[in-house]
Write a structure and sequence with these properties.
The protein is an alpha/beta fold. It is built from eight helices and five strands. Helix 6 links the parallel strand 2 and strand 3.
Length: about 260
């Protein structure tokens, strides 16, 4: 029947006539025994190589299917949202502003907004003051693709040999890195477009988070298409998570405010 999967071949189990001696590895086999074992390994060795090749082909096919699924998901979602009837989109911006200002957003509209993940898919993070808002948007956007901009001001290191200043700096820096890890971990697999204005240590944190999630086990970043990096040393310093093998749909990587040192 067309489309039916091929039958799974019966699993072959092999035994060795010298299996009882394997636990006593200090006893070397005779020359005749070596020849017998070598001959008995020809078929299992061939089968093992075939399985390794088949697994590699299956993995590649699975990754291609996941990439295709991500593309179709985005295409169909955007199209359905675009054609969905929405009278409110016909209202002029000025009228909408008046409604929000004068009515303080009625309870029903608030409930609709909270129940509409697409409203929360554009997220900005500019430091610890934006943390709660960023995580709120991330949670309310459900599992939809995200457009994310993260721009954290550079933290100056103290010039004076002042213990108090250095202690305060270290405490602030540790807190900053904890928040950045949370921000990355909560959203990076749903990035579609991302703009990062970060120092090299922050970008290193992104690699650490991506590595700890095991890209090989969970698969590539299926949604990521566009990356803009600021404060970066250039393509040679590009985080590995943005390399083609981990983000196959990327078509644009742009560098702004590139550091020259």
């Amino acid at each position: 029947m067309a489309g039916a999967s091929e039958p799974t071949p019966a699993t072959s189990y092999y035994t060795s006539p010298f299996e009882q001696n394997f636990a006593r590895g200090f006893q070397a086999p005779s020359q005749e025994g070596v020849q017998v074992i070598t001959a008995s390994l020809e078929q299992p060795d061939r089968e093992l190589l075939d399985l390794i090749a088949e697994i590699a082909q299956t993995t590649a096919k699975l990754n291609a299917l996941k990439t295709r699924r991500a593309h179709l998901l985005r295409h169909t979602t955007q199209s359905h949202v675009y054609i969905a009837p929405s009278p409110i989109r016909q209202l002029p911006t000025e009228i909408l502003q008046l409604i929000f200002i004068e009515a303080w957003v009625c309870w029903k509209w608030r409930q609709i907004a909270l129940a509409t993940p697409a409203i929360w898919t554009n997220i900005y993070y500019g430091g610890h003051k934006w943390y709660d808002a960023f995580m709120t948007y991330a949670n309310r956007s459900a599992e939809l693709p995200l457009s994310v901009k993260i721009k954290v001001p550079y933290q100056k290191r103290p010039f004076e040999e002042d213990t108090n200043e250095w202690d305060e700096y270290d405490e602030t820096w540790d807190h900053h890195m904890e928040l950045m890890e949370d921000v990355f971990r909560a959203t990076f697999r749903r990035w579609r477009d991302v703009e990062l204005h970060l120092g090299m240590q922050d970008l290193g944190m992104l690699d650490n988070v991506a590595d700890s999630s095991d890209l090989e086990r969970e698969g590539p970043l299926e949604l990521l298409e566009s990356v803009t990096l600021g404060y970066c040393l250039g393509r040679e310093a590009l985080p590995f998570v943005f390399k083609t093998e981990h983000a196959p749909l990327i078509y644009d990587v742009d560098f702004v405010q590139r550091l020259l040192y």
